[in-house]
Amino acid sequence: MTSSEDRINYLDHAATTPMRSEVLEKMLPYFTEKFGNPSSLYSIAGEARYGVDEARELVAQVLGSRTSEVVFTGGGSESNNLTIKGLAARRTPASGHIVTTAIEHHAVIHPVEQLEKLGYDATYVGVDASGQVDPDEFAAAVRADTFLASVMLVNNEVGTIQDVAEISRKSKAASKKLGGNILVHTDAVQGAGKVSLKVDELGVDLMSLSGHKIYGPKGTGILYVRRGVELEPLIAGGGQERQRRSGTENVASIVGIGEALALAESERLGSRDRFDSLSNKLIEGVAERIPASSFNGSRSSRVPEIANFSFPGVEGEPVLLGLDFKGIAASSGSACSSASLEPSHVLLAMGVSPELAVGSVRISLGRETTEADIEEVLGALKSVLDQLATFPSA
């Protein structure tokens, strides 16, 4: 990052990312001279329609899918809701069972809980201490009436990578044996730009993505829907996105998310060594300088961009405020609940005690993170924790 004294050492990229200049540059014409409605027939509309079509092609190339299987939405949460509620609406509650995990983002857990209130059934499969789901245990939860399995590709709080391909293979085999027809969805919002998103390799029928996690615009999302999968739309109207998501297309943002995803994928493999080095420096530095700390997650099956630590005897909020005072932005877990002092449901599912869970801090690295940034946060963490230890408890 820049060396100016008033800069922010931004280490919360799992919450959101700044838009890349290349993405903004590609978006700008669609706010002005290419402002047409893609559904109209005249030339200005044709320019807008071309922008949407080009973005759809870029996304399909990254996913290894057909362009007709790409649906543009208003964000990752909408993509998750469209999957869960859109599939459920095509069956009765009495014949509807969902299998998911205990560490999903709330954008999956809360829609499933809403369906449970309507009479649908759900099973939340647990994880081990590293945040890993056992594919056999997951498949064992499949029933004859299970219509959806949803498992996130990369956890947003601890960075653990799930073996989605194996979970899908075993779950579909279990469903077939029982005479069912299960569909597999993955929330891949945190996986974009970090792991492969090839849908056939993962064995998924639906996949959710978000623009603002990959240096694209906020309020943009993607839902991959395998050909033949039928969804009841959440938003009815003009029938855009092949009747799956009505509403005049947000052309500039669609162009932006397409470009952002293509750029993220093109740089993915080349960035692994750098992120591994930075992450190792961070994890080893925390262990050395703060021996009482604990690392949360897997050391062998994780994305290096996300690291989660617990510090005994403190709560995450004062640690974050202390870091912010020193010009460092981090998180206490999911950004959607970072203002809450409730312990993370992800950490609790991993067996972390509530006392340790409330003292957790997530540090997530980005394109501009340097070794100097890591050194700075290591020193700041030690200083903040030392200060907190001297404060009398209330």
Give an overview in words:
This protein has helices spanning 21-27, 43-63, 76-88, 106-117, 135-140, 164-177, 199-202, 240-243, 251-289, 316-325, 345-349, 354-357, 371-390; strands spanning 9-10, 70-73, 97-101, 121-125, 146-150, 183-187, 206-210, 221-225, 294-296, 306-310, 328-329, 360-364. By secondary structure, the protein is an alpha/beta fold. It folds into 2 domains: 9-19 and 269-387, Aspartate Aminotransferase, domain 1 (Alpha-Beta Complex); 21-263, 3-Layer(aba) Sandwich (Aspartate Aminotransferase, domain 2), CATH 3.40.640. Helices cover 40% and strands 13% of the residues. The model has no long low-confidence stretch (mean pLDDT 94). A 7-stranded mixed β-sheet has the order 2-8-7-6-5-3-4, with helices on both faces. A 3-stranded antiparallel β-sheet has the order 9-10-12. It has 13 helices and 12 strands. 50% of the residues are buried.
